[in-house]
Every structure is written in C-alpha cells, then in structure tokens.
C-alpha cells in the first residue's frame, strides 16, 4: 500500500482559470483534481483535510465564489457538498435546441487537424442529449463536416459505415496526405513573410537565422513550415521558438498587424502575424501641434505608419517613398501614398519621426527602431533562465529583523479606530485579509504600547491600507544613513552607454520586524487591532533603513547605485551590463528580495532616475519635472545658505485652492523637487502661513479632504512645519512671484483619495452647489478662504468671525465648502437637512451626533434642539420623566397626630389599612365591601380607640372623595389630605404598610397561624435602639406577649426624641433617594405641557392653576376639555403643537358650592367643604338638573348630567351591588356615579365619553 511519502512528489493541478466558458473550464479542472486526489489517496485523510486540500488547489479565482455559498461549519469540512455547490454554480443553463443547432453547424476548419475536429464535435455532442443516437450523430457529422471532399466520397462509398470506421478512414487519409506532400516537396507560400525587391533574387541563395525553426537555412526552405507546434498546437513553427506564454498556451492568441521594412527600401512590404501572450496592445499618445492621436507600439514593425487624414490635420508635407505597398498575411495590399516627417511630442519630448502614409483606416503604428530610440520599450531577452521566480510574490530579506530605535521615555499614544464609509468596508476588510495572508500584518489581541489610526488610500480603483504613525515618528531615533544624490550619479556614469533600473516589489514590506517593533506599529480598525510584521510605509526611519540594507548588500558592484528601493546599473558595453544585471539578480534572489518586473528596465540607452534622464550624454532634465506652472516657490537651505531653487505655476484648478492648500502644495512641490536631498532626512519647513503649523501637528484624518491627500504624499518626508513671517523668508516668496506660464498645462487632480466624502445623488449635489452659490454669506466666506484669513479676528466681517477659530479646517472643493470632512450647509438648505436628520424621530443627542458627523452650520446645536423639542410625535411617545427630588413631609410631634389609610385586595377580600406616622403603628381590617360607609365605620372604630388625628392622608379613591366622607370629616374635625392622582409616592406611608400587611397575611395563610398574634409581634418589635417598637412610641409601654418578660419591662416608659430621630431617618432616606434625581421644573399658568396617560403615551394640555397648598401638583386642562390634577412627575413642558383644536383656558374656576343628592330614599342634605380640602379635590353629587363638576379618584373632572334614559344599557363595564340607600361616586374609576334605590339590585352608571356625557342604566 502506497504511503504519503511515496506520492508526495506528485504536483497538484494548476489553479482553476475561470474564463468565458466557465462550465468547460470547471469540468476539465475537476477531472484533473479527481486524478490528483486518487494519486495522493485523499479519500483516506480526514474530512477537513480533504476540504482544505480542494480549496488550496482550486486557487484564488474561486475563493470569492466559495465565500458566496455561506456554508455552515459542518458543510465547510464536507468535500462532496463543496464540489456539489461548485457544480451548481458552474452548471450551464443549456438550451438543447440551440446546442444541437451549433452541433449541426460545425465544420472542419482549413488548418484544423482531424483529431481536433473530432474532439470539438464530441464536446458539443455531449451537450445535445443524443443518448442512444450519440455515435450515429457523430458519424454523420464527420461525413458531412469533413473538409476534404475526397475523404467524404470515400466515407459515403463505405458499406455499413460506423463511427470507428469513419474515424479510422479520416485519420489514415490525413496521414497519407501529409506524407504525400512531403514526398513531392510541395511547399505552399501561405502566410510567409516575404520581401520583394529589385535585388531580391540575389538574396535567395543566402543563409539566414529563422525565428520559426531556430536553424540557419536558405530562403523558402524552413523545416517548420506547416508543422504543428506541440506547445500551442498551431502550425508554422517549432515549440522551442513558440512565443506563446506557457500559462496561456491554450488561449486564443492576439494577431497584431505588424509592418516590416528592409533596410534598402522595399518596393513591397508584407504584413506578418506576430504571436503575443497578452491581449493588451501597447499604445502611446502622440501630439503634433494641436493634433493628438494614439499609436500602437509594434516591435514586429520596422517602419512607422500614419493615416492620410491625420497627416493633413497635422499639416504634414507628403513626399515620395520607395515603399509602394504594405501587404497583410492574407495577401491584402495597402498602397503607400508616400512618407512624411513630423515633429511629434511623446511624454513631453519632441522627436522627428518619419511615417509611411496610407489611405486605409488602420491604427497608426510606431515601429521597433523608433520605439527603442524614444525609450518606449526595453529588451528583456537577456534574462537567464532560472531568474523568473524573483518576480513572483512578496520577498523577505533573510536573516534580518528591524528593531525600532526610540528616544528615552517615549510618549506613545493609543488612538481609536476611525470610521470607514460603508461603501468600501467590504473592500477594506478584503485588503486586510490579503495582507494577513501575505504575512505583512497579523491580528493583535495582546496589549500594545501604541496604537496608530488606519489610513485608507484608494488609488487607481484599488484600496491600499496604510497607517498614520505621526505620534510614533516623534519618538523614533533616526540612523541618518546617507542617500544617493544626483551628483554622485553624474560622476559615476562617465563613459557609460547602457543602463538598467530594477525596482523592488513593495520594498519596505520585504523587511521583517522584531516582536517589540510589531507591538509599537499596531493600528486600529473597526474589526480590531492589527500589527505590522513587515516595515510599513510612513515610518520616518523606513527609507534610511532600506537604503542601508540594499547599499551594504550591493556594495561590491562598482557600477551599481541604490536609491531606496530603486537599483540603478550602468555599463560601458551591453555585455558588461548584462553580466552585472544577472549578478545583481542572483544576489537579490539569494538574499530573499523580489522585484517588480513591470517597473524594471533591463537594458536601455536612456533611462529616468532621480528626476533626471540618464544617457550616454550625461544628465538631462526630465520634462515631467520642469517648472511649467505658476505661483509655487521653494528654496533648499543648509546652514542658512541656499543650495537649490524651484518654482512652478499653478494649474487652473489649483488657482481656486484655498490659501492654506496652496501653501501645502508648495511644500509638497519643494519636497519632490529636492527629493534626493531631503528624502530620509530630518526636514524643517519654514512657511509664512500660520495655520499650517497647527494642522501638521494633527492627524491626517482631521484635515480637509484635499489637504489629507497632500499630507499623505508628504508622509515619507516627515516634515516639521514652523511659522516664519514672510519678510524672514523672502527667497521662496520671490520665486513664487515670477514664473513662466507660457507652457502652462492643466492637469486633473491625482487619482488618490485619502477620505471618502459623504455619498449623495447627482441632484442633491447639484442642489447643494447651487444653494452655496446663491448664499451671500457662504460666498463671502469662500472669498475669504481663497484669499486667506487675516491674522486677527477683528479684521474679519462680524458674520465671519466665528469661523476664525477653525480657519485651517475650511476648504473649497467642487462647488462645496468643507470644514474638515464636513459639508458647510447653506442657509436655504438647513430646514431640508434638519428634516433628514430627524428622520426616524431620533433624540436630541442622536441627531446632534448624526449632524456633527457630516455637516456644519452656525447655530447647529440650537436648531436641532428646537427641532426635536417641537416634534409632536417625539413628545407624544417620549420616556418617563426623570425622578424628582424627594419632598419631605411634615414630621409629627405627637402620637396619632398624622395617620395614613388605603384599601388593598388579597385573595378576593378587601382590607382597610391604617398607619400612624409618628409610631409606625399598623392595623388592618377586612371590609364587607368597598363602599364609603364601610370605610367610615372602620375609621370610626380606630379613632374611638386611639383618638381623632389632626390629619388623615389617603389617595383619591372614591371612598375618600364621597359626600359621606366629607360629612364624616367635618363631624370628627380632622384634615383630609390626598395625593396626586396616579402618583403613589404621594401616599408612600400607606403604600409601604400595605406591603407589610400583605406579607403578614400571606405567611399566616401558609402556616395557618393567628394573624392577630403575628400583628402583635410586629407592633412590639423595636425599629432601632432609639425609637423602640411602634407600641412603645404610641402607648409609651411594652405590650405583653407570649414571650416571657419581667414586670419592670412592662412598666410605662416615655420614648424621648422621636421627632428628632424621625427627622434624621428621613434625611438619610432623602440623601440616598436624591442621588439620581432632578429638581422639579417650575411651571407657570398657561404653559403648554404634556401629561402622561400611559406608558410612552403623552397628551397635550395647558396649566390653568397652581394650588399654593400643593407643592408638587398642578391643575391642567387637556386638549379634550378635561380638567385634571397632575403631579409634576407626570408633566413636562413642550414646544410642539399639543392639540388639533385650540385649547381655550377658562376664565372662571370652579367654586365650592353646596349640592344635594336627590333620590327616593336618600334625602338631600347640604354639604360644606372643609377649609383644608380644595374645591377641585372634593367629590360632588349630581342632580338631574345639573350642578358643578366633580373630581374622580384619578383627578378627572366629571361634568353634570342633563337627562336620563333608564332603558339604555349600552357600555356597562361592570355590575356592582351596594346597600340600600348608598350613593357612591365613581365606583369604577372611569368618571361614573351610581346608587341603589329600593330593595332590588338596581344600579345606575354614567360614563364620560370624548366630547359628550353618556348616561347608562344597568338593571341587575
């Protein structure tokens, strides 16, 4: 049995390449994988290993497809499920009729071998579902689709022809035909590059090197003619000379019409086919005067071609040409009208180029000689085999880790993660995952001494992750390794004619970091922290570190110079250059470095390096770096002496930049101008613009959008910006005032985005831009931004002075003014913006956070607060008020001076409870019913036993607000004080003893013990050492109980200092209760308020009265016309509309009147209100003719009745039976009255409905 070691050498299939025919690519790749899986015995390995092997082999192109499956954890380890999901994805949506149409339409191509034709029709037939007719259909297709009529005739004459016979006949005939052609020496001149000339016959007997077969032979004797290539399966060349790239061997090749011209000016020039491995054509933009056109760079052409109409536009002069015709590979001729010499501008260089002029509509072409002369192409054929892998992947310098050098007592900071626009979050996360896979970064979970913010750069459509290590850079000790200067290059290249330039792939990322350095270079993201494992871009010491490593590595080569990640090689001969290039490549490869092949130039006679063009003539100024723009000036100083100057003009768009951005742009221009002098060194920038000194000390993200881009480009230089007056730096100021703008060119802003601005529709953007233009205030601000703010705030117009404190954050971009990355909103757009901000009815703080994230305008806070507070929807559904501070009630000085009473129900029984505020004495008794009569009778028993209290406290229950209770109150001479409706804390003492009473009853019910004995024990239990028990405070003695005690303990003894002790206890309670409370709001008459009617449900009202004797209650009139008493905790002032119909505050208040109840058995009796009972709290009886309103237990004012309808029983909610003659107010708490008259159970109810009074009868 084979082991894993025995099959470990088997290479897996290449990654799945997803092209236009996805289904076919998938089937072929899956077949290869199945063979590979069988070879390595994959089915014997664990399930997770099988799935991981499959995904590792399939390649990166399929990863996104796999992630879209959203497989569960179990399915991710099941190879069969994964393959099935891929099959479903790649399964083509076939149309059988259409596939059969394609099958019947197939014919053998002219150059197609029979095996290729057979494979093609078999593949198509498999899609047609022929089933049992498969072989018959293939046989018929061969007969009617074969190209050779002789073979078709032979097939038709064959008796009982089947598929195998047909295939054999076709293969035999094709082989015999080829052998016959070779035997007869027949050689067609199809698609051969020929050059006909007057002297062509003299050249036919000469030998030459052939690029089709690789040998030397006479003309028209190529052994590769019409022979198939085993690499690309095309005819006409051998595999060793095939130009098709290995990875794209099976792909269709591009055919580029290339023009060749001999050195002695042919009469005819033929167009051949050049095979390239890429689909892209190299092009370049050319300008002749004001005419611009695009040319194709064709290395297969040795002359240049231009269209006649382009020559006429460029005003070129046509002159005769010895070349008469251009011929294509299909023998199509294009007549050459002549030739012309034009002065062309390519990449800011002017060259005289000779073009062949044609009439046909073809693409203009630059030939090989011209491309090489202009440095548009470079030969790469000198690379030896075995060096290709140096261009693949990301390198890593071996045996080295950079350990960052910090100053003593570094001050490192922890920065929070910055917000990422939702539109690019997915791309950013993908780039982070890619960097983790490349081993550039790693997720960090351990504590780190520093955390830098992440910077997202979107360049050329791709996301790039960087960090803003501004705080870390302040603590780094620099090594100050010298960088290469252009003067050193100038001295070295004397006599050199050939040059090369190598570029390291993501150079800094090829340097590993120590564990300590990784902790310091940690950055924050919305998905957690990550640490760099490789040297990141932006660290101030990175350039000199990389320069030092490469310089020491390549110091043995005298003709090699290093500038950061660029390696410059020069030589006097081509052979010397090739030798040095190969040695350098081998050295870099052995050290672990990787190069970027697309940026490498392996051989050239002119090359750009350090801002100059290097050639055999020495150094020339790079036209791209020439100062052709206006108003930017810089000077390079050392020890106060100038050593370099620079100036350029501003483009049309740059002239509209704010002053702060123009100055920052000048700094960037100076750094790039003197790059070779300042890069990697400590740099101090002197500027006469004070705000820049401040903004360069902040993080990049805090700057406006365009300034962020400029600051990001300045990150490699780590400039320290200091302010100096303009008179102290006259040199740069002078350079910025005198520039040549004759060749001024206008460039678009760089395709670099450091921050993504708030996305908006085109209409919204246009509306905002137009509103900004029409806003006189913002136009004045814009003018100030462009001209620059004055040094003093009082020099600004009054309306702009508030912008002075953040003037460095203001900028103007594409018609919109920004404060940092926030849009400055025009006045006409504020109301519309406010409406958008408050969508969803967010609260004040949420709206403020939402607005401050993207927007700015003066008075933003006040506008948003006013908006939310005036929103009626928010007001109606807001949360409960914060708890108000506790109001300390009057402290009693005598026993039984103040008592509280309340009713409660337990297990179907109603109880009346009473408690003394001074002693805490508690008692409760069951009631037969909930009538006032029962309550009054029980209170009389207690009052007769303990005496009449000065004050009785209760809620607004109907039993306490009835006419009978007021009569009882007047006769027994005590004050009755009620709490605010729905505010149970107002009767807190009674509510507390209700809980105690219920606990006693529940516990005694469980163990069947005596309730009265339990109540006795509770009353004689001391509250604390100073206050004693309730019995001691009330009776001044200890009551006897079953617990043994001495006679001395039962003797009367007065408890002293009770009021003082009670005061201390209540102050302590208030201290803790008021920790999370607020002071009550002070309301005034006619204030608009909302009162709470249910959880998160508030209705509008107005304050109509402030009772002097009720410190926390108000009398309000609702939008429905009701007059209610409400506690402060159930009210809040509002600015929103409170009613649909305007509330009219009544001019007169209800007065205390005497009323009489008229019933058959209850005689009328005048009732006078107690002086201590306010008129709006009194229960008042009603008669049939109407009287004054009354107040329910919930504080609702009940209007009088006007008529009765005994037969109406609508709306009865509950039936209640009362003793004969009992008259009860509001038994249900819904604004109703009821009484029983006569011996029968007859109840009358009246219920208040919105807008009317409805009278109801219930006959039980």
From TrEMBL:
One of its GO terms (molecular function) is nucleic acid binding. Residues 891-1067 form the Integrase catalytic domain. InterPro entries: DNA/RNA_pol_sf, Integrase_cat-core, Integrase_H2C2, Peptidase_aspartic_dom_sf, Retrovirus_Pol_polyprotein, Rev_trsase/Diguanyl_cyclase, RNaseH-like_sf, RNaseH_sf. Keywords: Endonuclease, Hydrolase, Metal-binding, Nuclease, Nucleotidyltransferase, RNA-directed DNA polymerase, Transferase, Zinc, Zinc-finger. Residues 229-243 form the CCHC-type domain. It is an enzyme of class 2 (transferase). It comes from the Eukaryota. Its EC number is 2.7.7.49. One of its GO terms (cellular component) is DNA polymerase complex. GO terms for biological process: DNA integration. Residues 438-614 form the Reverse transcriptase domain. It holds the Pfam family Integrase_H2C2. Coiled coil: none annotated. PANTHER family: CCHC-TYPE DOMAIN-CONTAINING PROTEIN, PROTEIN CBG26694. This is RNA-directed DNA polymerase.
